[in-house]
Amino acid sequence: MAEGPKKAIRRSTFMEVPYLSDPHRNLMVDLTSTVETRLDSQLLPCTLPENVRYFENQNGTSHATLYLRSGISSSPLEEILTVEICSVLKDLRPLLTSELEKIDFLSGIWIHSELPTGGELNITSLAMYLNSSTDAPNFTMDLILSSPTSLILYLNLLPRKDLVLHPDYLNTFYQDTELETQRQLLDKIPEVRPYFSPSLYVRSLLSPTAIMVRIEAEAAERMEEIIREHVHPVAKEALRIWMDQCACVKREVSQTERDYLRKRDEVVKTNTIEADLASSLLRLFGPETADRVQAAIRAVYFST
Amino acid sequence: MAEGPKKAIRRSTFMEVPYLSDPHRNLMVDLTSTVETRLDSQLLPCTLPENVRYFENQNGTSHATLYLRSGISSSPLEEILTVEICSVLKDLRPLLTSELEKIDFLSGIWIHSELPTGGELNITSLAMYLNSSTDAPNFTMDLILSSPTSLILYLNLLPRKDLVLHPDYLNTFYQDTELETQRQLLDKIPEVRPYFSPSLYVRSLLSPTAIMVRIEAEAAERMEEIIREHVHPVAKEALRIWMDQCACVKREVSQTERDYLRKRDEVVKTNTIEADLASSLLRLFGPETADRVQAAIRAVYFST
């Protein structure tokens, strides 16, 4: 081949990252484009600098692409309007941003790393967070392949309220949506086992229908088959449920509830970056790159 | 034997229920008496009427004993003081009830039922709830044996705050207490598999270190061995952690937090009775007995 994967990844957009198996890439491309097609009008373009959209470590063994799109209604007015008319129109913002605009941000990250053991680590992640105009759950999905035959799958409609205190919320978004059917479909595959994250905080984010499993296949071909035949349709259906019954449904949210949602979302975002992402970035890319990437993520996560 | 088990159960106290295997009974007796010895000064005697302490269904195929002890500081003053001095001393209550009295109630229920299929169902449950003077977790443990070789074990330090919003609470009661070690000990037993309750509400009550497993043994002897060698020590250690690091630790709780805890606890109790216990009681004992028992439970659960 004239071009190595490193060169290929530099030129690539978020969805053209090499290294992944076809079924894995197809899953990520399908889900990302399904969301972007449906919610495009609510999303600003990705404005990340080039050295955050793609980054690697010093010796070139780890590569990653990051993709972040803020929701229109979650972004500072300056990003949408010129500074001159910004102050005049500030009070009119509720009229400018439609009630339908509920997206806080869409985030995608794909990481590839050559392991010292000779193996390869591939992580792909897709998340859509809603803003405080709705209390509906967020969508998060991570696939962590520590080898071509070993996958950890995390697929969660992340609750934005304390489910114990709000059984009606549990019924609306988890019972009535029949998300449990999807969890059970995957649970039937012989290679699928429940997985317990070493982070108790990550566990506490799991809804009662969350999928947190380890899949160990005998061969790479079987893993590809499992992703294509089982993981993909389950993830697609969970995404459809999220779009139809969470992201695009109008909810009555009082000002007190909005303040509560903002605070709770902030704790989740902070802990997700600090407890979960920070250590991986530091380990795989070193402190300088990790800091730069985290700063860029924080700028989008905490833009409101 | 001159006496059948039915006669034996009528005479028995809570901890002398027949039908259970020795290791299962020993576990329940050990845990209950450990708690009662340590926290006896905080507990009132069980004042349930005879037909609630023991009850059965019409054709005598289902039997149960119920045991409820209110915490001193959670009980109406009338139960502690004579009516005459009650009104005078009402305002002095905070001085009368020590800061150390944190127990809301201790509850135990043991159910035995002959199944239409010819098998036997044995359920034993032990729970200690704390009152709103502390935000520390409650202790709950259920063993559900649908046959001598099939057990569902639920062992949970039930969080009393939204863990997602309060990572410090998660650290104090779940990370620093190393409860996860106990979960992992059981997880290593070959017959142990994660179990998913059909009730999403029950799942939402689980802490990140909760044990919710199904144990399928090849023979009754092996199940007895697993309960004796593995379940018993793990449950005992979880109880020790709960007593040392939850029930007997002073926590600063503001009035606002107390109101919140009272409300959240009430939702949990209501749902535990209605979603979880009510259907079992109705199915096994019929509507009249189920109503009587539930009323008695409600009287203790909601006495404050």
UniProtKB/TrEMBL annotation, chains A, B:
InterPro entries, per the entry: RCC_reductase
Residue runs in coiled coils: none
Molecular-function annotations in GO: red chlorophyll catabolite reductase activity
UniProt cross-references to Pfam families, sorted A to Z: RCC_reductase
GO biological process: chlorophyll catabolic process
CC per GO annotation: chloroplast
Name of the protein this chain belongs to: Red chlorophyll catabolite reductase
